[in-house]
Design brief:
Strand order of the largest sheet of chain A: 1-4-5-13-12-9-6-8-7
Helix content of chain A: 40-55%
Number of helices of chain A: 21
Organism (chains A, B): Lentinula detonsa
Largest interface: A-B, 117 and 118 residues
GO molecular function, one term (chains A, B): RNA binding
GO biological process, one term (chains A, B): mitochondrial translation
Keywords (chains A, B): Ligase, Nucleotide-binding
Oligomer: homodimer
Protein name (chains A, B): histidine--tRNA ligase
Radius of gyration of chain A: 29 Å
Shape of chain A: elongated
Chain lengths: 589, 589
């Protein structure tokens, strides 16, 4: 009987194959076969797992050891990480290109920091989540950790630059690392890509804030993620509410993190946490419950401004004034309809000092969720699925982990951030050996979860059978193979910037060359022949592919079954003026 | 007295500032001042270091500890790593874009693998250099290491995919990690970027090999790295030579690595290593010396083919036939003049099985080096600088390191690679618990050192005063600030894909807005006014910058001192049809 790991590996391979085949428009019979094989493998895996469970815990964690005993190595990527193959990367590069293009459209400049930082830089920034930081081994030198996000390295950079940073808008795109329990199918990974945009410096109130909100709306509109909502709140309003309701000041942060769970837990559970775990007076909790159930637009702001208790609280008053100005600006940017002022949004990180926000899409939510919920300030917080009783299991490396029911997990928020005015000053103070924040560099930023976006977009690409390569021309030859002549033409076209390929065989048969070009779905097939070379022309066939009944079908241009005779000297110009070329350039991505 | 570290940090900051200022065309007086400050800091650093040395070794390694005692943190990036700021990243993104574009022009598809691998995947692949691998801390799970190159993760991926990999040409761009002694100014880092292109699969002889050589020539020609040479050799020819000269088979690899040092050491030193350290008969060494001194083009191949001893050796014969076919193909690609068939090129890694190559440029070599040396087969190996007696010192973390004289170090080869036909099979065999390579997936690849290329190109960019931002339009307003009107216009233009910015102040003075737009060297300044808004037009000024006597100077379009009145409804179209817009699009990068 094959081991679970072998089976898992084989399933992974077959899954990848299935997607590649589907994308390359293979015939349905072939697809069916791979599908059948996948089914069988999954059944075998189920049996193997059941057997392991029956063998008891002594057996778990032993596969790795068993492999080692046999001198075998496990061919896999580390837990919570994966490879991205050619078709997937084509989609990921597309997403990244759109995001970067929006970043520069908003005046951003790129920053790149190392993938690891000195451990002390990350220390004390992530609260309870610090346990998720990946540390490097001490190999005789510095104590290093993999970066957990882009925000802390940015703050370190800004603090190091002092006043010499010449660009207030900086963006970073790259991977960050968290030793969390992965849910791979939803883009929750241990290694994942984030695209950050931050605005630093002292500017007039709410202008950078509005820029960031408008930016994230622009990006999500350009990416095909479906309907989305930006949930927004303000730390100063939240803190004001807590004060008004009578939360003791030392409990404000811990009560705030209880509120943050309202998107996953019903109010009753959150109240229980506040009162039973955190010792809050139930009447205080009830007052908080009245406030945090509110969601809405600018009209909610009017309602809160009319609340005499809130208006009398300096923190809430400041927050409400900020929100009011922000809403004015967001109307100018024409994105106000995307906003949901959500009093239950609190966000985990301690360092936020002003507005906080999260972008959610219907496709990214757990089952039962609706984006853009109708505003009904009198309704109770929407019911959320009960937290599943989680089960701790040991994985193949003997590491204890929580078992996650993937069907109950959404992709989560696909972008999030907020204002953090104190973080850069914290670094400057710590570097000076001072306990008080030093020099103020106010900041606001957004992190976009590229893997979560990919998890939403990729299935649509597969369904649409999108091309996954940009190669425009496949150069072939009849008869003797004409390898040197093929190379010359290929080089000539590439020198003109045209993306060209050919079959790396000396004398391949013509149908084999056609098949290779068709696998890449190239729009132009150029065929060389000895006579044609002597007479100074080539044959060109224009071809395109369409999804018909879930299957890729090649369609030749009208009257182009035999191809067209094109003068060799005019070839590049001819190619560029064809309708096929223009169609590709227009609808390219 | 300031500590060395404080000084080093300050020098780094001032250096960055100097470059930013120079790029942004600051006035010479300001530049001079920063330069002067830099000089002072460097002198202070020298004094501080001398003092530390005088204090004896007890003092070294204590700065970190001292900082900790005071509760201070060191604001710096880890050893051998650095941040890249906006202007530098603009140049790096440009380099990356050219490289990726060439990769797709040659039919490549992107692959992405995790930044760390299971430790056993990297084990046994790098010989002596394995000590340079960064390991992650064991935090209760897998044993992980940061990737050392892209080749081993690629081979792991290909082995996992088995026969299901549908693309033979795969490229990867990303960072790799080596705990080596950094020479930062030459792009030798502990974290550095490599761009790899590999062709896998069974194809006809030397066709993929010619594709890779042509590819690297295309890339280096497109990047402004100056004259370059591709040094090339063949492992089978080298092995044949060793056999013909009488090297015992068990000594072939170790003698090969001695030969590999000929680009850094004179022949006498290499011979000494062969005979005294490695016990080779001096007469055998002399025979090798006769062979490896040869450098040349196709004529050298003829000379070697005429050597009866080599022709009689099966390994050498196979290698010479390969080279002969390769040269035929490289003539078809029209890149033969870039090649230098260099018998002393051996390359360190064990896994190469066929041709091996390195790209070098004049700018990347140590002092005294010349690219494209005249071919003179009778000459002795060119004299090379003597290896400096290196000194071990302790750094601030108490880590022992070699002191490097940066002025004597070149950037080194900027691209290198070779054929490795056995690596994928090694993984498949190891996974099956088999000691013999299993299944053959022949591969050939190239790694391009992006940091080394950046180290060559960046000073030229600074000198030319190249723009480091793409923002096209700066929107301003006279009088009351018109913040909402500015936002509306900015959003309108951005929605059309135009890169636009504005000053995040509510009522900024007009000169302040102009200064901000000029710092970004935007070609279009658009000025809003209340009357203009009512009447439906805007004022537009076209401006460009030129380097005059090492200083950036703003030049207004002819007759454009006052700007032009443009109809608001026609603005986007008007902008796109101006000469300024077209000049920017053409000469953009």
């Amino acid at each position: 009987m094959a081991s679970s790991l072998d089976l898992e590996r084989e399933i992974e391979t077959q899954n990848a194959l299935f997607n590649e085949l589907r994308l390359s428009g293979s015939d349905p019979a072939g697809l069916e076969e791979v599908k059948k094989k996948l089914g069988e493998l999954k059944r075998s895996l189920g049996q193997a797992k059941a057997k392991t469970a029956a063998d008891g815990s002594a057996a778990s964690g032993s596969k790795d050891a068993a492999a080692k005993k046999k001198g075998r190595i496990l061919l896999k990527t580390p837990k919570g990480t994966r490879d991205y193959g050619p078709a997937e990367m084509f989609c990921r590069e597309y997403v990244e290109r759109i995001v970067k293009d929006c970043f520069t459209t908003y005046g951003g400049s790129c920053l790149d920091t190392p993938v690891f930082e000195r451990k002390e830089i990350l220390a004390g920034k992530y609260g309870e989540d610090a346990k998720l930081i990946f540390d490097l081994m001490d190999q005789g030198g510095e104590q290093l950790s993999l970066r957990y996000d882009h925000t802390v390295p940015l703050a370190r950079y800004l603090s190091m630059m002092g006043g010499t940073n010449t660009q207030s808008k900086l963006w970073q795109v790259g991977k960050v690392y968290r030793r969390d329990n992965p849910v791979m199918s939803k883009g929750r990974m241990r290694e994942f890509s984030q695209a950050d945009f931050d605005i630093s410096g002292t500017w007039d109130p709410m202008i950078p804030d509005a820029e960031i909100i408008s930016l994230v709306c622009t990006i999500l509109s350009k990416l095909d993620v479906g309907e989305f909502t930006i949930k927004i709140n303000h730390r100063k309003i939240l803190d004001g509410i807590f004060e008004v309701c009578g939360v003791p000041s030392e409990k404000i942060r811990t009560i705030s993190s209880a509120v943050d769970k309202l998107d996953k837990l019903p109010w009753a559970d959150v109240k229980k946490e506040m009162t039973e775990e955190k010792g809050l007076d139930p009447s205080v909790a009830d007052k908080i419950g009245e406030y945090v159930k509110h969601k809405g637009g600018p009209e909610l702001l009017d309602q809160l401004l009319a609340d005499p208790a809130l208006s009398a609280n300096p923190s809430a008053k400041q927050g409400l004034e900020d929100m009011s100005l922000l809403f004015t600006y967001l109307s100018a940017y024409n994105v106000i309809n995307r906003l949901s002022f959500d009093m239950s949004l609190a966000r985990g990180l301690d360092y936020y000092t002003g507005i906080i926000y999260e972008a959610i899409v219907e496709a990214s939510a757990p089952p039962g969720f609706k984006a853009n919920p109708p505003v009904d300030p009198s309704s109770a917080p929407s019911p959320a699925p009960k937290k599943k009783a989680s089960k701790k299991v040991k994985n193949e490396d003997g590491e204890e982990e929580e078992e996650v029911d993937e069907s109950q997990v959404g992709v989560g928020s696909i972008a999030a951030g907020g204002r953090y005015d104190g973080l850069v000053g914290m670094f400057s103070a710590a570097a000076a050996g001072d306990s008080k924040p030093k020099g103020s560099v106010p900041c606001i930023g957004i992190s976009i979860g590229l893997d979560r976006i990919f998890a939403i977009i990729w299935p649509k690409w597969v369904e649409k059978g999108k091309r996954s390569k940009e190669t425009m021309v496949y150069v072939m030859a009849a008869g003797d193979g004409l390898i040197v002549e093929r190379m010359k033409l290929v080089k000539e076209l590439r020198d003109e910037g045209i993306k060209v390929d050919f079959l790396a065989k000396k004398k391949p048969k013509l149908p084999v060359q056609f098949a290779a070009g068709e696998r890449d779905e190239v729009p132009f097939a150029i065929i060389l022949g000895e006579n044609e070379i002597k007479e100074g022309y080539v044959m060109v066939k224009q071809q395109k592919w369409e999804m018909i009944d879930g299957k890729k079908v090649k369609i030749l241009a009208e009257g182009d079954e035999k191809g067209e005779k094109v003068d060799r000297g005019q070839l590049v110009q001819w190619l560029r003026t064809t309708r096929t070329w223009k169609e590709w350039e227009d609808g390219k991505l």
